[in-house]
Amino acid sequence: MTTATYAAASMPADWRDFVALTKPRVMTLVVFTGLCGLLAAPGHIHPVLAFTAILCIALGAGAAAALNQWWEADIDAKMKRTASRPLPAGRMDRQAALHFGVGMAVASVVIMGLATNWLAAAILTVSILFYVFVYTIWLKPRTAQNIVIGGAAGAFPPVIGWAAVTGDVGALPVALFMLTFFWTPPHFWSLALFVRPDYAAAGIPMLPVVSGEVATRRQIWLYTAIMAVAAMAPVLLGLTGLIYGVTALVGTGIFALLAFDVYRRRESDVARMKPERRLFSYSILYLFLLFGAVVVDRWVAA
Amino acid sequence: MTPEEDRIVRARQRSRAIVTGVILAGLVILFYLITIVKISGAS
């Protein structure tokens, strides 16, 4: 957080701006992976408590996103992709965003603890604090490896969903954590490749800005290989069956082909980065597919 | 503040009040349901 370089809000924010502050599109994936962790867990949870657990995961993710935007308002103002967000566009008072984020974070943790159990609430707390303090404030402005370590924050939801049902953490949610953790670098760096000018303008040390485009392409390929091992681990460890195994094999195969295409290309013109955009879009579908397959697999086996 | 700005501010305050009310009502229902589930031991 530095001196404000964006327009200050002169009017009270519209309620839609508060919704935008929670990054609803990012939340979709977080909610889905949390739901899959919950549905794949052994045991029973009352539908009302299951709904509450997912609501709390969504609220926690929204709170983390709001606090991220509160901290980065001046950086967002410098990037084309983020300049129209409520804070840099001057549609919201900065303190309102802080209060909204903190209030929602506390509410999500307390309701999760009261409705399910305090282990799930504790992991939710760690994920919010990790995203805000470790990723947003500490790593993101300092190192090109920011999203590798910071990606852990986005990998917690399936563990939280599982813990909400069982009250503990098993091998499968840890495997799903690892999958999301190693999925994040190729997912995010494929985006970073085609928004590199934005990051450079904002002074954020994303990998393509610091190490260059070729190194980023190599790192995408490297992390795809590690991700492939993480994707196959649940079936190799006997935690899931054939449905997940086949989905992971085919899905990861396509991921690897797209990542290899990105790896061997030498293209620095952002407008011509179609394979990079394709890998980014597919990576989202990939995670939806694999997590969905885990649930189907566990339900068929049950 | 011009009359037009004043109208926009009032409209925003009103819509925010309505949304806050809906959220609070939702929380009341949610806490009621959680309590029922907890005391019935169905969790």
Mean pLDDT of chain B: 91
User: Which chain pair shows the most residues in contact?
Assistant: A-B, 14 and 15 residues
- Mean residue pLDDT of chain A: 93
Q: In angstroms, what separates the terminal alpha carbons of chain B?
A: 54 Å
Low-confidence stretches of chain B: none
Q: How many distinct helices of chain A? A: 15
What structural class do you assign from the helix and strand content of chain A?
mainly alpha
Give the strand content of chain A. under 5%
Number of E strands of chain A: 0
User: Distance N terminus to C terminus of chain A?
Assistant: 50 Å
Strand residue percentage of chain B: under 5%
Q: What Rg of chain A is obtained from the alpha carbons, in whole angstroms?
A: 19 Å
Shape label of chain B = rod-shaped
Largest sheet entry of chain B:
none
User: In terms of structural class, how would the helical and strand content of chain B be classed?
Assistant: mainly alpha
Task: Give an overview in words.
The complex is a heterodimer of chains A (302) and B (43). Helices cover 75% and strands 0% of the residues of chain A. Chain A has 15 helices and no strands. Chain A has helices spanning 15-21, 24-40, 47-71, 73-76, 94-115, 118-139, 146-150, 152-155, 157-166, 171-194, 196-202, 207-210, 213-236, 242-264, 274-301. The N and C termini of chain A lie far apart (50 Å). Chain B has 43 residues and is mainly alpha-helical. Chain B has one helix and no strands. Chain B starts with a helix and ends with a helix. The model of chain B has no long low-confidence stretch (mean pLDDT 91). The relative contact order of chain B is 0.08. In chain B, 88% of the residues lie in helices and 0% in strands. The chains are: A mainly alpha (302), B mainly alpha (43). At the A-B interface, helix 3 and helix 5 of A face helix 1 of B.
Notable traits:
heterodimer; A: 302 residues; mainly alpha; 15 helices; B: 43 residues; 0% strand
